[in-house]
Design goal:
37% of the residues lie in helices and 22% in strands. The protein has 941 residues and is an alpha+beta fold.
Length: 941
Amino acid sequence: MPSRTGAAIVVVTHLGPQQGELVEVLQGFTSLPVTQATDGQRVQRDHVYVIPPNSDLSLLHGVLLLLAPTQPQGRRLPIDFFLQSLAKDAQDRAICIILSGLGSDGTIGLKMVMENFGMVMVQQPDTALFDSMPRSAIATEFVDFVLPPEDMPGKLLEYIERPLLTRPPRELTPESKTKPAHALQKIFMLIRGQTGHDFTYYKRNTLFRRIERRMNSHQIKEFTHYVRYLQENPQEVEMLFKELLIGVTKFFRDKEAFEGLRTHLIPLLIKKPADSTVRVWAPGSSTGEEAYSLAMLLLECLEHVDPHKYLKIQIFATDINPEGIDYARLGLYPENIAADVSPERLRRFFHKVDGGYQIRKEVRDVVVFALHNLSKDAPFTKLDLLCCRNLLIYLSSDLQRNLLPIFHYALNPGGLMFLGPSENVTGFQDMFIPLDIKWKISRRSESVASLTRLANFPFSLTRHPAAPVHPVGLMNASTPRRESGAFATLVQKVLLRYYAPPAVVINSKGDILFVNGRTGKYLEPAPGLSGMNLFDMAREELNFEISGAVHRATQNRQDAVLEEVRLKTDNGYELLRLTVKYLSEPDTLAGLLMVVFEDLPSPKRNRGRKKLDLQEPDGRDAVVVALEKELKYTKFRLQTTIEEMESSVEELKSTNEELQSANEELQSTNEEAMTNKEEMQSLNEELMTLNMQYLSKTDELSQAANDMKNLLDSTELAIIFLDNEMVIKRFTPSVGRIINLLPTDVGRPIMHFANNLKHSALAEDVQLVLNRLLTLESNIQSNNGEWYVMRILPYRTLDNYISGAVITFTEVTSLKRLEQQLQESARFAESIIETVREPLLALDRDLRVLTVSRAFATQFQLNAEAVKGESLNTLSGGAWSQPDLHRRLLKLINSEAREFDNLELQADFPEVGHRHLRLYGRRISSQGNKTDRILLSIEIL
């Protein structure tokens, strides 16, 4: 790093209580001033600050603060502790760099940095001496750059030179070539086309900054170029989708908030009726920490409730990220959650597994994880608790206004809503009663959400709210008229009020669905408890006319019109036109009927007589005319009724025949159903038998699996099972000494892991075994000096099918050391024999030469190396083949004697001639134990 960067650097490492030399070490590698952080020290640019030993370091308003650690040495997470405070204090100016280290410290902290729009850089694991921390950070997928250390300064300086604070605010940024207004909509369209999710209602500022993070990682400066890049690279759309779905969560986030929630939950649970279900919904659950926190809290609260009530807990945890849902269902979390979960809860609700903690099954069973889009899918209802923390802050105000009424609708009366500390219910105070203002805990009020608020659901299918209506006096003459606008709607309402005739919309049964205009002159409420039915409410003189017209319109699916229908009013009789229109469009109104009442003007000849003809007629002729007209109409109605009756009789006959045929078919079907029922019962019994057999087999398999696991664990053998693609299927815990494997590594290829062996061809050996179906065995040594016998053999199924390979590592370090000791002892003994001045000869139990002294070889002119392994009887042309000597040597071998002395013999040796010798024999012992070796000493007389 150069000396002038404008950045302050804080180094946080895992130090022991007495380690304090890091400042001097770092100062030798940089020209920047390096100091140990002190309590209350304000950070300055171009300075390096080092965490002191046995302290936790945090940052507040640019000031370093030291805290005494509360966790024991083995469970402290100083990097996470500092990064979380850095993210909250510096926000988008925070830069997090994770380097080589053991464990997973820093994983939670980098998520907080990412949530606050900071930058995250991680060392490439292949270049790290300890790659656990870099790999854990990369596994979160919240990383901007993965680089080797030598490439980090350049990328870091490039990022520092373009700080986000120097950019103008989004609201003031004019449209330009590089940022056209429609570019964001195109990006939304591409994401929705590939993932099905619409981000239109998310806050634009948040979206812009996260999109720019992806653009910076690809060195793309213009939005139009990035849109093109998204079109050509579908995988980048997935990466951007994940970037927009950053889910930063942890167990019991804001512990004081959960304690406040506990105080309000206990009274709610006490009031619940016996054998009922406590329903909870946690939208935006991300990787499940918050949902499991609610489950643990509710299980603890049940301890304060009468146990005989048998309350059941059901938590619905939803999110739109399928990977997060899959991770949450597994319930496996790293060891660093110990900083957020108390030891009591860890013991009660978690299992300790290799590399982390897993939620116990009884807790996982009360949480149901599901994919759910809050902006378009139907909500979960009848809830006692709705927990939506730190999700609304990412949504636009319009979407928030639509969601809160839905939340009110989803909650039971008296249900609780739990929001994040930065969220509120502004504008909906009538729906929720605040219980805890600081931690945003509210209770559902008894007010009913208006239909206009609930009608906007689902939001993805609704239109944007219409523009506000301007007073007519202020309307500009040049303002274009919009057919669907509010102004046009008001005008249409006025036209309908003053110029459209009264009408009602009914179904075929006469039930009134809609009323337009004033219909009181034609309809009146029927006595009793009758509903809104046209046939019941029509006036007496209109009832028959309306019934006939509705019948004709329904049968013919055509309009029916009756002219000059007489209606009696307080002022006499009036004429009206009765029209029944059959509606065939739009689709939502198809099959309905519209009954229209239109008043007709009085005939001209009656207007001058003050409507005498419309009054009740007094003269005989008028009565006759009226009666004839009514008789004519009655005959017409009677003829129509007779024709309809005959048609109905024919239809009834045909229907009766069809019913008889259908009855016969039903009887036949009933007989078949009875037969099928008997067959189903028999099949059900067979299935029950099979089910019991399967259950028994399952128990046997479970027991066999348990036995196999205990067998493999008890042998302490390191065994790895691979498939044909060299993907890890299973391994024993002892493998961890050789290859750093975790339970989550099952399903990954063996080539992805570095081993601790001085053997670089492990993958090639496995491939050789798979190709040739042979067994490979070799002795290999680890980097820490241990020896193993590695055997690689094909994995054969019961039907003799090759389904991969098995690698076993048997530790033979002690055997290797013993072998080495024996070799050293043998070499030591041989060196002693070779260096003594007397002629000596060492023999095995077969009287073969093991070694000879230099004096023996010189005296008898033999090659010391050539005679090794040669029989004593053939040595020097058989000169040593003496019966007395042979007999005494056999006694030594058979343990009949321990030694013999002063054995004299004379022999002719080809190399040196006749010699007179005196021999001494001893059986060699090792630490008091007999051996099969004999030492023969020669004295030349």
